[in-house]
Amino acid sequence: MAKTDVKNLLIILLFVVGFAAAGYGLCSMAGWAVHERELITAAVICALAGGLAIIPAVLSRRKEHPMNALAQAALIGTVLHMFLIILLAAAVTVARLAGDRQPFLFWLLTFYWASLLAVVLVLVSLLRQASPRPAGNVAGVAAAQQHGSQN
């Protein structure tokens, strides 16, 4: 696992933890019940789904045409993110791991959008890293064009 992959996972985790802390603080200040168990369960589900959602993009960077493969993998990653959250939330609900379903679903919706935002930011940064860079000088462009005309 590369250093940038760990950084990307930390970005997703920090988004979810940041939203959890902000939500906890806002609920506490407003005098509302926080439902800590549901908050933690929803945060873990979304952080896990977010981390798994970037795996297709990380694996596709090693392809022959990384830009095409990465764009498709990014789309697959966002769909995977949504389906993993639905699947894990259903499993948690059926197993009754979250005490109260309504607060769990509200927290889940909050963390879904937070983790989706983080996943999209990570995938866009991976796409930008894989995009071809234009030549920096005219001599480099002329040499590339001359080399291309010889083939």
Task: Give a quick precis of the structure.
The chain has 151 residues and is mainly alpha-helical. It contains 6 helices and no strands.
Account of the protein in words:
This protein has 6 helices and no strands. Helix content is 82%, strand content 0%. It is mainly α and 151 residues long. Helix 1 (3-30) packs antiparallel against helix 5 (101-130), helix 2 (36-53) runs antiparallel to helix 4 and helix 2 (36-53) packs parallel to helix 5 (101-130). It is elongated. It has helices spanning 3-30, 36-53, 55-60, 66-94, 101-130, 138-150.
Number of extended strands: 0
Which class do the helix and strand fractions yield? Answer: mainly alpha
Mean pLDDT: 88
The fraction of residues in strands falls at under 5%
Helix content: over 70%
Number of helices: 6
Terminal-residue CA separation: 38 Å
Q: Report the radius of gyration as a whole number of Å.
A: 21 Å
Q: Which segments are poorly predicted (pLDDT under 50) over 5 or more consecutive residues? A: none
Q: Based on Cα principal axes, name the global outline.
A: elongated
Order of helices and strands: HHHHHH
Sheet bearing the most strands, described? none
